[in-house]
Amino acid sequence: MNTKLFLSGVCISVALVSCGLTISENLVVGESQTVNGASVRSWARIAANGEITQAGLTVPMATIQNGPTSGSPVVAQINFPSDVQQTTFLQHVSLDWNPHGHTL
Fold first, then answer.
1. What is residue 97's DSSP assignment?
2. DSSP code per residue over 6-56
């Protein structure tokens, strides 16, 4: 019984790793910039036919947790990968950190 569960777990793990490898082959990373001590990066997923299926920005929690509470605002303009820029209307993302919040 335990052997069957172990082998089932191994098969599921291998299947998940295989899926991850397939997905990572279509992942294109763009520009990265350090914002508040952490690396913020643009990315896109591209289907086998060249279609952009997803485009996004990874913002680590450390970017938010390490945000300054005083001083000047932090502004980063992060370009999308060139494949995204050439085939969609997306060019860049502007990420702003205002240490004083938004005033009305």
1. E
2. HHHHHHHHHHHHHHHHHHHHTEEEEEEEEETTEEEEEEEEE-TTS-EEEEE
pLDDT digits (tens, 9 = 90+) for 71-86: 888 999 999 999 999 9
35 CA to centre of own chain: 14
For the record, the structure tokens of 6 come out as 């172990």
CB within 8 Å of 63: residues ≥ 6 apart:
35, 36, 37, 38, 40, 97
Amino acid occupying residue 20: G
Task: Give the whole-angstrom CA distance, residue 54 versus residue 52.
Answer: 6
Bridge partners, residue 34, by sequence: 39
pTM of the model: 0.70
pLDDT band at 25; cut points 50, 70, 90: low
